[in-house]
Amino acid sequence: MSSPELHRKPLERYLRIHDEQITALLASKEAITREIGRRQNKKQGEPSKPNAKIARTPTLAARRDAIERRISIHKELVALGRDQRILDVLDEVASNQDLAREAASDPNAFAKSRGIKIPANMKLEADAEEDQISLRVTYYDRLEPFVLTWDRSGFSIPSFDALDATRPSAQPQTPCAQ
């Protein structure tokens, strides 16, 4: 396995977490959508359960919308993380100190010059000193924030326990429980 491939292993682990989140979120969205449909098709004369804590349909719809937004974010991040063009540029920067300094001077402009589109709520910070280069990617989003770092030794990701502790649960929830 080549050095760049070894550097990417932690990134691929992180992307698998995003894939798992997408799967869990899709299950939640499906459950909520079914519940909304059930409520819309419910017969008027059907008694409701007393003392049940039931989320209102607009609340469920808002929850479904938030889940759709989170799914979209995860898909965008996975696509960026698996974009071969981005990975190739990082390999190029890692092997060329002059290119590393150019990238560090204005990482967003450098990415753009290489045909890489950076989302508006993503910030790139790079540093190139002597024979070192590092890149910090920060994704600012209330629902799915994250930070990822990269240097010549590869990608660094916050501990997976820390990620889970800061991320809202994506496990399917009973849609009518609040």
Number of structural domains: 1
- Spatial order of the strands forming the largest sheet: 1-2-3-4
What is the average of the pLDDT values?
A: 81
Class computed from helices, strands and strand pairing: alpha+beta
Percent of residues in helices comes to: 55-70%
Report the count of strand segments. Answer: 4
Largest sheet: 4 strands, antiparallel
Order of helices and strands: HHHHHEEEEH
- Weakly predicted, low-confidence segments: 160-178
Rg from Cα: 21 Å
Oligomeric state of the chains present here: single chain
3D architecture notes:
The chain is built from six helices and four strands. The chain has one domain (3-44, 53-166). The protein is an alpha+beta fold and 178 residues long. Mean pLDDT is 81; it is low at 160-178.
Write a brief structural summary.
This protein is α+β, with helices and mostly antiparallel strands. The protein contains 6 helices and 4 strands.
Task: Please give a handful of descriptors for the protein shown.
178 residues; 6 helices; 4 strands; disordered C terminus
How does the SSE layout of this entry go?
Elements: H1 3-41, H2 57-81, H3 84-94, H4 97-105, H5 107-113, E1 122-129, E2 132-139, E3 146-151, E4 154-156, H6 160-166
Antiparallel strand pairs: 1-2, 2-3, 3-4
Helix pairs in contact: 1-2, 4-5
